[in-house]
Automatic annotation (TrEMBL), chain A:
GO terms for cellular component: mitochondrial large ribosomal subunit. Coiled coil: none annotated. It comes from Dekkera bruxellensis. The keyword Ribonucleoprotein applies. This is DEBR0S3_03950g1_1. Keywords: Ribonucleoprotein, Ribosomal protein. Belongs to the bacterial ribosomal protein bL17 family. Residues 206-225 are annotated as: Disordered. InterPro entries: Ribosomal_bL17, Ribosomal_bL17_sf. One of its GO terms (biological process) is translation. GO terms for molecular function: structural constituent of ribosome.
TrEMBL record, chain B:
SUPFAM superfamilies: Zn-binding ribosomal proteins. The gene is MRPL32. InterPro entries: Mitoribosomal_protein_bL32, Ribosomal_bL32, Ribosomal_zn-bd. Belongs to the bacterial ribosomal protein bL32 family. It holds the Pfam family Ribosomal_L32p. It is found in: Mitochondrion. One of its GO terms (molecular function) is structural constituent of ribosome. This is Large ribosomal subunit protein bL32m. It comes from Dekkera bruxellensis (Brettanomyces custersii). GO terms for cellular component: mitochondrial large ribosomal subunit. The keyword Ribosomal protein applies. Keywords: Mitochondrion, Ribonucleoprotein, Ribosomal protein, Transit peptide. GO terms for biological process: translation.
């Protein structure tokens, strides 16, 4: 039994998840469920785009596939179809989160791409850009690429992104030491590994000097002892 | 036991004269085995019968005889205590039970704290989600509120509530486990 459910239960779970995804644009579930629901969602949107059935007939078909049909079916056939007319695939996105407190199950956010309501990736990248701008440092290559990918098919994406960045600047850096930590990685991966150093640490003037002073002073003390 | 005592007290209250003043305890004499009729193998009592018999006896005698011990039936139990060394070898030797180092850590570009690689930083996610919640609450139509011509009417109909400690606890939700913020990367 996949996901600890019988076939019938699983079908209902997925139908429920997909319906909520259409209604709310974003859902938070475990990884396994999200992966199954993602495939179903993609298929549904593709089917809606490519169908040759007359609208009434297709509508009845959709009524058998979704829940809360009075809200989901018109939205799928109207808003979502219009939104994804330039895309051939990749209508959804999975973002990994930390495991859930309690049962430690891997959590993810499953969201529809280019939704203007609750798009976590859009806001996360906007927050990164806002932080860099507040610190007065230029965008690193990875962030630049991320922004470009994000706004590729989006309608009025640039304007909306700028607006979100301004909101992020106002809302999310209210703590005193929020901007103390400067970006230190020169590598484009924005990551580092403790075992093998595939990154260069950017020197920070005073802080770096004092560290070296401490290091250089230590062996002298040992010698004197 | 307590029932028996109460019953006895009840009888005492009816009238002492009705009862005999001296009572002798009933004595059961052990009868030698050769006097008893011999049992065949088929008649031999099963464990269940024996247990039920013991339970009956225990009930009659006021549970003075222990049910599980001293009745000739033994339950499975280890013979010896596991030594300190053996226990520690079992519990702490296997590498799979050690605390492991986390090498899959990154710096969150949005807040500068540690985060798991290929995962979102939970601090930033919760911050954004909280903002969405406030934003969506503003967009909702305001809840219906009754209007009163005379403010006294409102006071009479809806007198003020006092918040008890229990209500306060429920409202603040301090009992929930909160995810701590990770450490900043090499400050």
């Amino acid at each position: 039994m996949p996901l600890g459910r019988s076939a019938k239960m699983l079908h209902h779970t997925m139908r429920n998840l997909v319906s909520s995804l259409i209604e709310n644009e974003s859902v938070k579930t475990t990884f396994g469920k999200a992966k199954t629901a993602q495939g179903m969602m993609e298929n549904l949107i593709l089917k809606t785009k490519r169908t040759k059935l007359p609208p009434n007939q297709f509508k009845t078909e959709l009524y058998g596939m979704l829940y809360n049909q009075d809200r989901t079916v018109p939205k799928l056939m109207g808003e979502l179809k219009e939104r994804y007319k330039d895309r051939n695939s990749g209508f959804t996105r999975i973002l990994k989160l930390e495991p859930r407190i309690g049962d430690n199950s891997p959590q993810v956010i499953l969201e529809l791409v280019d939704n203007g309501v609750r798009e976590m990736k859009f806001w996360y990248i906007a927050k990164v850009v806002a932080r860099l701008e507040l610190q007065g440092s230029p965008l690193d290559p990875l962030t630049e690429k991320n922004v470009k990918d994000l706004l590729l098919y989006r309608k009025d994406g640039q304007a909306e992104f700028r607006k979100t960045v301004e909101t992020c600047k106002k809302e999310f850096f209210k703590e005193e030491d929020a901007l103390d930590n400067l970006p230190r990685m020169k590598s484009t991966t924005n990551g580092f590994h403790r075992a093998f150093r595939n990154f260069d640490v950017v020197s920070r003037g005073g802080v770096e000097k004092s560290e070296t002073d401490v290091k250089s002073s230590e062996p002298e003390n040992k010698d004197s002892q | 036991m307590s029932y028996a005592l109460r019953g006895a007290l009840g009888i005492m209250s009816i009238g002492e004269a009705l009862l005999p003043k001296i009572t002798l305890p009933s004595i059961t004499l052990p009868i030698p085995s050769f006097l008893n009729p011999k049992r065949t193998q088929e008649d031999a009592p099963t464990i269940e019968e024996k247990l039920s018999e013991i339970a009956e006896n225990a009930a009659n005698k006021g549970a003075k005889v222990p049910f599980f011990t001293g009745n000739g039936i033994y339950l499975a139990a280890p013979k010896k205590k596991r030594s300190h060394m053996k226990r520690r070898l079992r519990v702490y030797t296997p590498g799979s039970k050690h605390v492991k180092l986390k090498n899959e850590l990154n710096r969150c570009p949005a807040c500068g704290h540690y985060k798991r690689a290929h995962h979102l930083c939970m601090n930033c996610v919760s911050q954004i989600q909280q903002y969405w919640k406030q934003r969506d609450a503003k967009l909702k139509p305001p809840a219906y509120k009754e209007e009163f011509a005379n403010p006294l009417d409102e006071q009479v109909l809806y007198p003020g509530k006092t918040e008890r400690a229990y209500d306060r606890k429920l409202r603040l939700k301090d009992y929930l486990v909160k995810r701590p913020k990770t450490l900043p990367v090499e400050k």
